[in-house]
């Protein structure tokens, strides 16, 4: 059938071209934003005297009925239409006749598409931020329960210094707080209305863009009509923020995968968030963490695809920009799947405190504190460093740890060693001595927990 844009051409395109050109298969999810935006547009047209108020009321009522019927399931979206905008306008015109044809006055599909997408994505950001807050809450609760649990801290995946497990978890809470900030910044720049920019040059009608924008919850309007219809920075920025978020989840996933292995056995994941093997009955696989790690690449791909699409486009609108939606929708959907699963996985994760502490002891991660002990007794640091290394070598050769070496054995290396040595190299003491702000001492961890809680409020 002829398209609503028939005029210069007969509107009778090839069926293959129709399928290739259509976007309704993925932009139909924006039906609510499209209808809400159209209702505001009709109200603005009437307020400016461009159409009769009676016609505007008829349009608004008709759009409200269409929205209600779609949401109730009484009206099925016609997938043979080119896009959701054409479907809504066609349905309205079929019902209202010539009055329905007045709706598209003083706007174009170019600014309409941009409007719907901004409205849709700002709601997606709000939903995603809610999920992030829930995850931060789960992490903080777990950190509070383990603010004195000893964990070997790593650099280069080598045991380095003892830290509190709660301190380690809170590092991810800090990353996620930054993700919230990034998404909030992105939402702020996104919340600018393009409606009224029309195809590219504005309109000859005396419209009130600011009133229409305000009625739809926008903070401002796009100040240049060319930029208003061609700008997809907000999509790229959102994909960038989501990619960084997924990178954080992926790093956390990697650690959970390591921690839950038999080689580490620092944590035990709930059966509800693991799977088994089809042939190995002993297996308990961290598939949820692995999938989050894997889906990170998918979100990265969405970002790269959009940047590549946009990089060579002249002003203003080009059909290439239809490619903005599938990627950004996919990224939002992916993140919304990952976050609740991750929250559940963290919330139900059991911590194997004894295994963590044993690993910390066997890693000799209190060797620096042993050297510091000798320095406090008057030995030059380099001499203390060498002596501590020799003591570690003895422990390794004899299958001991620094805490189990006798005082007599210590005195074979230096007469400076006294009974107070054992308190200095106790892992809990080593952790508690890291008193600098942001460090791993109990007071610092508790301060970090309060900081996160305040940020969430």
Principal-axes geometry comes out as elongated
Helix content range: 55-70%
Structural class: mainly alpha
Spans of 5+ residues with little confidence (pLDDT < 50)?
none
Question: Please, could you describe this protein's structure?
Answer:
The protein has 19 helices and six strands. The chain is mainly α and 457 residues long. The strands form three sheets. It has a two-stranded antiparallel ribbon. The model has no long low-confidence stretch (mean pLDDT 95).
How do the helices and strands line up, and which of them pair or pack?
Layout: H1 15-21, H2 24-27, H3 31-47, H4 53-72, H5 84-96, H6 109-145, E1 150-155, E2 158-164, H7 165-190, E3 192-193, H8 209-215, E4 220-221, H9 225-230, H10 233-259, E5 267-268, H11 287-310, H12 324-348, E6 350-351, H13 353-362, H14 367-376, H15 381-398, H16 407-411, H17 421-425, H18 427-432, H19 442-456
Parallel strand pairs: 3-4
Antiparallel strand pairs: 1-2, 5-6
Helix pairs in contact: 3-4, 3-8, 4-5, 6-7, 6-12, 6-19, 7-10, 7-19, 10-11, 10-12, 11-12, 14-15
